[in-house]
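Structure in, sequence out. Go:
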């Protein structure tokens, strides 16, 4: 049998973590060797039983460092997939890199300055790390179309809509989309009138280069984004809808395979496609 990639999922009992545990345990070239959660309730229980997909013989732990130490002792290079919380992710990545473990990070909420610091840390350690605010191919295509459209439109606003258990706003995907548009070196939305916000926040968050982001949180939503361009006599709307978290799994599995070939930090799924 070809060598197996040892994988630990951090945030394994969460909405994304559950799907990743299933996807990794079904992948022919990967072995799930660890499942980390924060809550002590399930510690010691089989992660497969906890998430309802049948026994996987991997007990849940809430001890991150010993798991990284164990992963670093594997014969093959190990990968930790992080889908936890914006408050925890920076420390998790640093610690994984310090152990020589390759992080694949879906957790959002890192600032650009934090990503820069982590990139320097990964460079010094010559350790690959992949941070992808969105693992779905549909969002990559939407972002590419938005970059193309921005050559012809000077006015753009982003609306992102998510389930109401999301911790961070705006979404990592919306922030990255605005960054991609801002990198083109133009300023959007030249102001034509003096605006007054009668209720603070009515015009949304100001991202880079004049781009505005509006965040909606409602039960019933999963993850959705619109990029709306306006021009004389026309509106051009790009929209992506994630109706099920399985849409992220091909991107997660690809990232696990590709991070092993990296020696630096890479930000964005589009860079490894
Ligand atoms: N890149 C992408 O394509 C996607 C990224 N995401 C991102 O992934 C992250 C997780 O999302 P989701 O699965 O919906 O969230 P959930 O709240 O459903 O799951 C979070 C998981 O992380 C654990 N956790 C929560 N807080 C902490 C903490 N402070 N320290 C360590 N572990 C913690 C939870 O453990 P416990 O339950 O024991 O508390 C749980 O296992 C978010 O940042 C989200 O934006 C989501 C979807 C797609
Ligand atoms: O929390 C979520 O659900 C999602 N988070 C990511 C983000 O913040 O962009 C990716 C996707 O939008 C789902």
């Amino acid at each position: 049998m070809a060598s197996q990639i040892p994988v630990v999922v951090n945030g394994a009992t969460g909405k994304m973590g559950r799907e990743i545990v299933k996807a990794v345990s079904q992948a022919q070239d990967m072995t799930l060797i660890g499942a980390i959660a924060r809550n002590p309730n399930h510690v010691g229980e089989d992660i497969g039983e906890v998430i309802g997909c049948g026994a996987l013989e991997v007990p849940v732990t809430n001890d991150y460092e010993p798991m990284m130490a164990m992963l670093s002792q594997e014969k093959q290079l190990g990968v930790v997939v992080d889908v936890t919380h914006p408050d925890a992710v920076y420390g998790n990545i640093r610690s994984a890199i310090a152990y020589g473990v390759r992080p694949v990070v879906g957790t959002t909420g890192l600032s650009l300055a934090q990503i820069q610091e982590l990139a320097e840390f990964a460079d010094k350690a010559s350790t690959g790390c992949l941070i992808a605010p969105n693992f779905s191919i549909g969002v990559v295509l939407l972002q590419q179309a938005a970059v193309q459209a921005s050559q012809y439109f000077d006015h753009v606003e982003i609306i992102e809509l998510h389930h109401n258990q999301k911790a961070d706003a705006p979404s990592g995907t919306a922030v990255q989309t605005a960054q991609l548009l801002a990198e083109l070196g133009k300023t959007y939305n030249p102001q034509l009138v003096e605006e007054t916000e009668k209720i603070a926040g009515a015009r949304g968050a100001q991202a880079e280069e004049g781009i505005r982001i509006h965040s909606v949180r409602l039960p019933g939503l999963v993850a959705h984004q619109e990029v709306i361009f306006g021009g004389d006599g026309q509106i051009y709307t790009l929209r992506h809808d994630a109706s099920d978290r399985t849409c992220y799994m091909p991107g997660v599995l690809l990232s696990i395979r590709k991070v092993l070939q990296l020696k630096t930090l890479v930000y964005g799924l589009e860079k490894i496609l």
